[in-house]
Design goal:
heterodimer; A: four-stranded parallel β-sheet; 14 helices; globular; B: mainly alpha; 4 helices
Chain lengths: 318, 85
């Protein structure tokens, strides 16, 4: 029977198992001496760092904060607080110059100007999900320095370019993580949770790239639960989930999911364990067609992002 | 080429998926069949705007108007685009 407690875990034994799994993966399977973890100031990377320290000890874990000029200032502060709480040295690698050299901001801004010609210096921007009677269309939101924000429906070309340019951020961070991993003889830990992993909410070659993914089988609500058990600082646990990828604040719900995390977690769980939309609807006090719609989105996103999970395909010569 | 023919040609040319998909039927759900995702819907909107010289308002970009060849033809007919049959 599906209940609101279906996702509840016994945090202690689960954290022990995850730490043991990490130890085996890093030391035996991968043959590395430690783990590099990129920390964003958010809950997922905080839990991965805490589990890594539990598994390998603080001296065998490198935490990296990689701010860029559009990162929220509190991201770095929270990363520092976390590293200090766990006794891990924090390596800070600002990445704005690399992003500038790659044309990340320029390419994105040029694409936005195709939609809003006056967009320029000092303006804010983000992507935000809009519901078009069943279509999940991502809109571009812009805000002049002293003005009201405006929402614009993008062309497919402009949208794809904005996403592609923004993906430089995640890929640059991963490049930096591997630099330090190579230097230290470490492996790299990935931080996607189950919802992100399942629904392809990561950048291939960016935050989707890692040697080991300790929390990709944990629903977001379980991440919260384990983070509290692992004594992740309350300031991080209290921070609303955000992508921190654009100059305007952007929630995960705005970027990818139109429901709250607990609701989506339950939908995903119900779908995977054979519970009906009627059961979920009753539990969440939502209409059955709404849950059917969410089930449909989950299945379509899974299908559309399957290629993100694929390893490179080796073509046989004969 | 008819309006219907132009729509079919665009969809077949633009949303080619790996593997044998079979022939696109007139009433087939474009999103339900996995041929078109949300970015594909934006491509379709740009295509009909550029090809037929109409403005697709935000409130018109909905599955009732865009989710099959038949629905697109009916939508364009309502928008006054000729030779829609």
């Amino acid at each position: 029977m599906l209940t609101l407690d279906s996702l509840y875990l016994h945090a202690g034994p689960v954290c022990d198992r995850l730490a043991a799994g990490l130890r085996e993966a890093v030391g035996q399977t991968l043959g590395r001496r430690g783990l590099c973890v990129g920390v964003s100031g958010g809950m997922d990377s905080a839990l991965v760092l805490a589990l890594s320290v539990k598994a390998l000890g603080a001296k065998n874990v490198a935490a990296l904060a990689m701010p860029e000029r559009e990162s929220a200032p509190e991201s770095l502060e929270l990363a520092k607080e976390l590293a200090e709480a766990l006794g891990v040295e924090l390596i800070v690698e600002p990445i704005s110059q690399i992003l500038d050299a790659a044309g990340c901001y320029q390419r994105r801004d040029d694409a936005i100007r195709e939609l809003v010609p006056e967009f320029g210096e000092g303006w804010g921007c983000k992507l935000a999900l809009g519901n078009h009677g069943g279509y999940q269309i991502t809109n571009v939101v812009v805000q002049p320095p002293q003005g009201e924000s405006r929402t614009v429906r993008p062309t497919a070309e402009a949208y794809a370019t904005i996403v592609a340019a923004t993906n430089f951020k995640q890929r640059t961070r991963k490049m930096m993580e591997y630099y330090h991993a190579d230097r230290l003889g470490f492996a790299v830990a990935g931080t996607p949770n189950l919802l992100e992993y399942d629904q392809g909410f990561f950048v291939k070659g960016g935050d989707g790239l890692a040697d080991v993914k300790p929390i990709c089988r944990l629903y977001k609500t379980q991440v919260y639960q384990l983070a509290a058990y692992m004594r992740v600082p309350k300031s991080i646990c209290a921070r609303p989930p955000a992508t921190d990828a654009f100059s305007m604040p952007q929630s995960h719900e705005e970027f990818y999911f139109s429901l709250s995390y607990p609701q989506l977690d339950l939908c995903l769980y119900a779908l995977d364990f054979g519970h009906s939309s009627a059961e979920v609807a009753a539990l969440l006090d939502l209409p059955i067609p709404e849950i059917d719609r969410v089930f449909g989105i989950i299945k379509r996103k899974r299908a559309a992002t399957a290629w993100l999970h694929m390893a490179p395909i080796a073509i046989e010569p004969r | 080429m008819t309006v219907r023919g132009k729509i079919r040609a665009f969809i077949e040319e633009t949303f080619t998926l790996p593997g044998p998909k079979g022939r696109l039927t007139e009433g087939e759900s474009l999103m339900g069949s996995g041929r078109v995702d949300s970015m594909g819907v934006l491509s379709l909107a740009s295509f009909v705007q550029d090809t037929f010289g109409i403005d697709v308002r935000d409130d018109e970009l909905v599955p009732d108007n865009f989710d099959s060849i038949d629905k697109l033809v009916q939508y364009l007919t309502r928008k006054g685009v000729g030779r829609a049959a």
